[in-house]
Amino acid sequence: MTGQPDLPDTQMESLRGAYVYETPVRLWHWINALSVVVLSITGYLIGVPLPTTTGDASEWYVMGWMRFFHYVSAYVFTIGLIVRVWWAAVGNRYARQMFYLPIWRRSWVSELLYQLRWMLFAERRSMLYLGHNPLANAMMFTLFLIPSVIVTITGFAMYAEASGHESWQYAAFAWFIDLWVNTQDLHTIHRLAMWVIVLFAIAHIYTAVREDIMSGQSMISTMVNGERLFKGRGVIKR
Amino acid sequence: MPTTTPNGFPLDASGRRIVVDPITRIEGHLRIEVNVDEQNVIRNAASVGALWRGIEVILKGRDPRDAWAFVQRICGVCTGVHALASVRAIENALSIRIPENANTVRNIMHLALTVHDHLVHFYHLHALDWVDVLSALQADPRATSELAQSLSPWPKSSPGYFRDLQARLKRFVESGQLGPFKNGYWGHPAYRLPAEANLMAVAHYLEALDFQKEIVKIHAIFGGKNPHPNWLVGGVPCTINLDGAGAIGAINMERLNVVSTIIDQTAQFIDQVYLPDLTAIASYYKDWLHGGGLSRKNLMSYGDLPYHANDDSAGNLLLPRGVILNGNLNDIQDVSLHDPEQVREHVTHAWYRYPDGVDSLHPFDGVTEPKFELGPQTVGDRTNIVAIDEGAKYSWIKTPRWRGHAMEVGPLARYVIGYAQGRPDFREPVDRLLRTLDVPLDALFSTLGRTAARGLEAQWAVHQMKRQYERLITTLKAGDRTMANTDHWEPKTWPAVARGAGFVEAPRGALGHWAVIEDGKIANYQCVVPTTWNAGPRDGKGNIGAYEAALLGTPLADPERPLEILRTIHSFDPCLACATHIVDTEGRELVSVKVS
Amino acid sequence: METFYEAMRRRGVSRRRFLKFCTMTAASLGLPPAMVPEVARALETKPRIPVLWLHGLECTCCSESFIRSAHPLATDVVLSMISLDYHNTLMAAAGHQAEEIIAEITTNHKGRYIVAVEGNPPLGDDGVYCIVGGKPFLHQLQEACRDAMAVIAWGTCASWGCVQAARPNPTQAVPVHEVIRDKPVIKVPGCPPIAEVMTGVLSYILTFGTLPELDRQGRPKMFYSQRVHDKCYRRAHFDAGQFVERWDDDGARMGYCLYKMGCRGPTTYNACSATEWNDGLSFPIKSGHGCLGCSEKDFWDRGPFYNRLTDIDQFGIEKNADEIGAVAAVAAGAAVAGHALVSAGQRLLQKRGSDDDNA
Fold first, then answer.
1. B230 — contact with chain C (CB < 8 Å)?
2. Does residue C4 carry a pLDDT above 90?
3. Considering only CB atoms, which chain C residues are within 8 Å of A66?
4. Are A52 and C336 in contact (CB < 8 Å)?
5. Which of A103, A212, B455, C77 has the fewest C-beta atoms lying within 10 Å of its C-beta?
């Protein structure tokens, strides 16, 4: 078992908590979560539709609604992502964290490894962070942000198919279609990216709950009221 | 130095070499080289398949239910025959039984293709070997009309019709832009038709070009499009809905009416145009009976058109099955695609390589690894072949053999076998034609015999198509509307390893597909197609194939314009994309040419 | 040289029928009636243009489709609209007499002829997988294209590579635009293309003396800018969620949507559902089988054809996105459960340990 990484040990026992996630971040988080749920379910059912309906076609609009809700939540998701990028620029330092990986920072890398060991039960205590711990940061960047961008681009490129070659979607995303030509590939990539986001959601929810219980810092309530609370003693990283 | 091949053909390559490349009016790329003696008689011949594409290797690892679509793209002329052989091979492997209706619909589609293929072959790929287009300008339209009316009740036969046509043809020729007729062997001494017959044939060339598109509409009804209609493992994709809600989305009365109307129109065209033309042309060439070649000795047919579904026994097949060896019409031998001793492929003279010590392989165990090399007697080099060395490897076509014997396949083989079996539907039309032309049975074994058998078969097929259509209606009347069996559609219902063979009598002859399925994927796939049988190079023992044998002994009236070579080769209806095999890429380095 | 109109008159076509033909040509090109006089004028004044139609690695389905054209009839195209001077499957000439035609046209009609390519050149092994006149097909193609005014890539072979270029592409077959880079290449994909699309593209060029407007992939917009799905007559069933679930089921008899049977209509740009095949008689979906996507690049490697989702070979195993995703999600769920169990156990131990410390 290794010890604590080589870090400036800042005992901040006096710090019981701090306001880290501003309202736009929290609001985005929950709206985004909802849109991901709707997008994943409707998206899955667009590719693998429900059992057939019967009777006159004019009485049903199952796939129509499926696609409608998918598109609406896709717009919510996309606009949310754009707003979130904007807030990363103007919000506090914690609003920026998920948009980059500070791999050039040796301390960040060693703390990432430390957190990994903690998750593998090789460390007795979690480190405490005001913002995202490095492992969470890495997951958000690779398993959420990147697939989100891919899912958005492929999504709008496919939207361009339905809206036609004269549409703004086509004007904006035809370059991406050119990379593949056969738009069947867009569907495949779109779906793979969705599954990565689903994987992220599973890991994200589990680790949030676990850390809330085991790491001595608040997680779930923090995304509700923005306050990070420290319950135990430990090294608090900024 | 003169030699005789083990299968009895004298060869002498000492004379002048004549090369025809490309052989046009065929599917794909074929090169023919012959040697002629001082009297310009062909004494040696080499048939060079000049392309391959790789479909069988590409199939490895694919879903067997998709295979029909891949192999269908082997050939767009005989479109459908490979797909049909493929679904049959897969169904054979997976023990899938298809519904009666599906069998009947497949028969109708196959017959439609057969009629179409034969018609287009006769008029657009073959006729110009017998018909001198420019000679038609000298014809007397009135005499042409009389000739036409003496042969057939076909309505387009008035003197005015032929006069107009001749005038149009005259202006076309005078325009200087001859289009597809440019640089033809016009005025060649081997053309024997009087001007009037030429004019009539040219008229029918154009009529047939306009009409042929009607026949394959049957494919569009059942398969959605032609060329390359859709097929389905387990049945056919189209459904029957005669009188229920939504019937406009299925095969209904209107769709069936399209089919029956086309069958009637086609029967009229074949009966009143194709067959009379064939008989008329043959009557002028009946003493030009060259080109028999291998057909006098060995003929083979797998048989086809199962009357009842799922019964491959010879008695259930409307097209005859069997092998004739050494010209013995009294002893028809049976053929099996599964017997490892029967169909085997050799590559001694083909641009492929077998593992050391392997002389030949049954298609289930087939290996296709390319080895392009030219023999020491070659004139030129690999990117500029002037004359091939047939003593070495010289073709992209493999050499299939039946129990070691070279075989000729095709309509002539089917007709001779059916005739020898005493089937009245084959015997009577042959006897009638022979009587009309006043030639003996032996005349069948010739270039003209091949062409005549094709015409008779087109007529047989169109009338058989009518019977199959009536049979479809009968089963529908009885209440059977099933078109597909999906019991074994899902791969989880399949055995871990399965192998199957499917056969079809394609327009050009016996076609077999062999598929090995492992864990739901294709592990090996081999096709042995009619043109492989007919156009293949020599085998290791020196036996020559049907193309090469057919050319021997034919005199060329003008070696600079070898019309007779085209005539005999065309009588086989070559399909080179079909014939050529595929490579295994394992352990092979590809050298790329630079593209500037 | 005589004009198209003269050629038609020569064929005994009356002025009246000629104008009717112009109306039909205009309609098949999607032009308003006001354009008919322009079509007529163009056909009256233009000479027949020489066309060299070359065959590489292919199956001749494009030529077969071409002669299926009902409007205009293939005979009209061949005898009156163009001068089809070289076409392996139709030409009377053979051997060196055939090859001489290419030299003659490229010399005497420099810049005033069209090369139509069916099939494609293989580049592997010096191109010996397709030999014409003793030489690799690539040489013939390059020679013929050198002074052409335009190159038409008939079908998916010439446009995208098609079946011989499917994995592992043993012959290294490549589409025409990869070897002919200095000429406009009009892609008319499809396996084969629809007959009337082929003759429509040709007659557009001849009528207007210009190439049709092409999309970003080089396909004529007039035929390839919308998906089969967009104009499919079964689209209402798709929107309603009414699908064929098994072959020959009640849904199939009702003409429901074939999406679940793997139909590629939603990702296929072609005119099938509007123009239809064989004189507008049917198209694959209308006859009960899904679209294979045959006008799309590499559609052979986007199978299996009967699954809506493509198998992804890059994963080494042939699984589609959903199968891979579902396996990963189940694995993640199992990992989470296991991890949670261990965490709970560890926490219990720690608690006991700290209780012991306190004791």
1. yes
2. no
3. 241
4. no
5. A103
The pLDDT assigned to B171 comes to: 84
Q: Shortest CA distance to B399 belongs to which of B445, B371, B369, B361?
A: B361
Among C87, C125, C132, the residue with its CB nearest the CB of B29 is C132
CA distance B196 to A89: 90
Q: Is C266 on the interface with B (CB under 8 A)?
A: no
| Chain C residues with beta carbon closer than 8 angstroms to that of A54 | 242, 250
Residue A201, Cβ neighbours under 10 Å: how many?
18
**Which two three-digit tokens encode residue C79?**
């005898």
B128 token code pair: 């110009």
Contact C333 A57 (CB under 8 A): no
Contact C278 B25 (CB under 8 A): no
Residues 465-484 of B with CB under 8 A from C: 482-484
User: Which pLDDT does position A98 carry in this prediction?
Assistant: 93
Whole-number pLDDT of residue C60 = 95
DSSP 8-state symbol, B19: E
- Rounded Cα distance between B504 and B301, Å, is 9
Sign of CA dihedral A6, A11, A17, A20: negative
pLDDT greater than 90 at residue B561 = yes
Q: What is the pLDDT of residues B348-407, one digit of tens each?
A: 999 999 998 898 999 999 887 888 999 999 999 999 999 999 999 999 999 999 999 999
B61 CB neighbours in chain C (<8 A) are 318
The token duo for B473 is: 């209606």
Q: How far is C345 from chain B (nearest CA, A)?
A: 41
Task: Tell me the one-letter amino acid at C176.
Answer: V
> Which residues of chain C lie closer than 8 angstroms to A188, CB-CB?
309-310, 312, 320-321
The helix/strand/coil state of B352 is strand
Question: Which of C325, C321, C298 is closest to C308 using CA atoms?
Answer: C321
d(CA C224, CA C228): 9
- Pairing between strand A128-129 and A236-237? parallel
The helix or strand, by DSSP H or E, that contains position B521, with its residue range, turns out to be strand B521-528
pLDDT in tens, C57-68: 999 999 999 999
Which domains are seen in chain A, by residue range? 18-237 (1.20.950.20)
Which H or E run includes B344?
A: strand B343-346
Query: How much is the ipTM here?
Result: 0.94
Residues comprising chain A, all counted: 238
H or E element in which residue B441 lies: none
The residue with tokens 């679509």 is B69
Partners of residue C89 in chain B, C-beta under 8 Å: 24-27, 77, 125
Can you read off the two tokens belonging to residue B82?
């490979």
**Cβ contact, residue pair C287, B230, below 8 Å:** yes
Largest Cα–Cα separation, chain A: 71
Residues 6+ apart with CB under 8 A from B85: B71, B502, B503, B504, B506, B511, B512, B513, B527
Closest CA in chain C for residue B220? C282
| C-beta of residue B415 within 8 angstroms of C-beta of residue B444 | yes
How is residue C313 written in tokens?
């070979």
Q: Which residues contact C9 (CB under 8 A, 6 or more apart)?
A: C15, C18
Question: Measured between alpha carbons, how far is B161 from B152 in angstroms, rounded to an integer?
Answer: 15
pLDDT (tens digit, 9 = 90+) per residue, A133-149? 999 999 999 999 999 99
Query: B527 φ, ψ to 5°?
Result: -120, 135
Q: How many helices (H) and strands (E) does chain A have?
A: 9, 4
**pLDDT given for residue B160 in this prediction:** 96
Angle between helices C95-108 and C137-145 (to 10 degrees): 30
Rounded Cα–Cα distance for residues C151 and A180 (Å): 23
Q: Please judge whether C131 and B25 are an interchain contact, meaning their C-beta atoms are less than 8 angstroms apart.
A: no
Q: Do A182 and C298 touch (CB under 8 A)?
A: yes
Identify residue C231 by its one-letter amino acid code. Answer: K
C13: pLDDT confidence band, cut at 50, 70 and 90?
low
